């Protein structure tokens, strides 16, 4: 089947249905294209309004990834074709980021439970899809990261909100290094809620069809000792019980992020990026391979991304999720116009020489004044923000 997203509605024993959406591009590790984002968003709107759908499941085809990022090839073509230094001229980037961010926000605010299966690679755009789900599940193969430092973008898809909510200064460290997290550290960082082995996932999906879901064709509500429970709370509880029943008996060993969290919190403390950058860079020769790789990835990455990610985390610390998406949208359009985004994709995916020519080339050149342009609204004066209505009736359209 060649459809980029496969949709199913599986009937349950009590007459409800489970909506299953499968990203179907395993050859590109289920990278999220604009078409996929449109399809997902439209179907989520329909399922939200359908009283017969109790739960939504998001998963990826194949065994290698849920979703390893966004449509970098399509964005690269659009950046090559659009006039440089005019962020509003790139129509494809405007549409891509608007649709993707609306989809991500819809998942955060969805009126029904969403189970997201974080199996294999979950990176960039995949993080955006997974993080808003009410029930975030990782398998033993899960590898989570926001590696935008290596392609000249920044941790978007709500990353400025998500990273700020991680323990201590670990979010700052991950933004600067793109370090990869295992299932244990996914829990520590607040990126996962449940752990289910890959081999147990088909059985979990089958079990969903046997549960007594609440809804219009099942029980409308349940009363107990004078209290009533709405369908959402009932279905959230049923999902939680089913997922906890599949948790492996052996506890996950602490991952490297947790093991080194004291040191990371110390290195990334304060409001001086130059100092933080220097502290992390000193880890490049560390005995621990995870720390050393993280530092070397930062040093090889875009200094402009480091500055932009740092500034976004500082500015968005107390802002709402809606405001974060609106600010990231402006920054993303600028990154597509005069940032390092195109150069990072070229070096990684097009020419594959892995020798990006970053501009600015140093963290000193990517200073506080340089980054200000990424916060200037690029559309014509008087025009509202394309995401101005974010948050209005997101569940149903």
From TrEMBL:
Can you name one GO molecular function term for this protein? Answer: 3-hydroxyisobutyryl-CoA hydrolase activity
Q: Which SUPFAM superfamilies match?
A: ClpP/crotonase
Query: Which BP terms in the Gene Ontology apply to this protein?
Result: L-valine catabolic process
Q: Does the keyword Hydrolase apply?
A: yes
UniProt keyword list: Hydrolase
Enzyme Commission (EC) number = 3.1.2.4
Query: What cellular component GO annotations does this protein have?
Result: cytosol
Q: Which reaction does it catalyse?
A: 3-hydroxy-2-methylpropanoyl-CoA + H2O = 3-hydroxy-2-methylpropanoate + CoA + H(+)
Annotated Enoyl-CoA hydratase/isomerase domain residues:
18-375
- Protein name (Swiss-Prot/TrEMBL): 3-hydroxyisobutyryl-CoA hydrolase
Which species expresses this protein natively? Bordetella genomosp. 11
